[in-house]
Amino acid sequence: MAIDLTQLKALREETGAGVMDVRRALESSNGDVEKARAWIRENAIKTAEKKADRETKEGAIVTYIHNTGKVGAVVALTCETDFVARTDDFKTLGREVAMQVASMDPQSVDELLAQPYIRDAKTSIKDLIKQTSGKVGENIVVKEFKRLTI
């Protein structure tokens, strides 16, 4: 099957996946963009699961303060290298996890990981982290968090 380059480029920009992964996704789905997105998401999760036992010594402390100024969260998110910790994907993930903590008030990391993501109830926080992990190619771990309220 011939791959439409505009489709390939658009899907790559949307997902951040590599060119060959996008090509494989489009080929395996016979050009169906929705199926290709699902393939990329599943592939990222599988890739992340392979890296789950790697040590995470780098990372960032990420914060989120709700616009009312009365609820906030601090999250310690770790990864393997400082290079990944500085990427937009990692920073965005940290902010989304902190927002999740502020809005859903989980009591433990395990509870947080099991929660449905506030922006997409079909995706758990664990899967959101795995998707980003697969995209950046490193293990990502939520070490701890704290929710603050007034």
TrEMBL record:
Entries under Gene3D superfamilies matching the protein: DNA helicase RuvA subunit, C-terminal domain, Elongation factor Ts, dimerisation domain
PROSITE patterns in the cross-refs: EF_TS_2 (PS01127)
Predominant cellular place of this UniProt entry's protein: cytoplasm
Which InterPro entries does the UniProt record give? EF-Ts_dimer_sf, Transl_elong_EFTs/EF1B, Transl_elong_EFTs/EF1B_dimer, Transl_elong_Ts_CS, UBA-like_sf
Single Gene Ontology MF annotation: translation elongation factor activity
Family to which this protein belongs: Belongs to the EF-Ts family.
- Protein name in the entry: Elongation factor Ts
For this protein's source organism, the top of the classification is:
Bacteria, Candidatus Cerribacteria
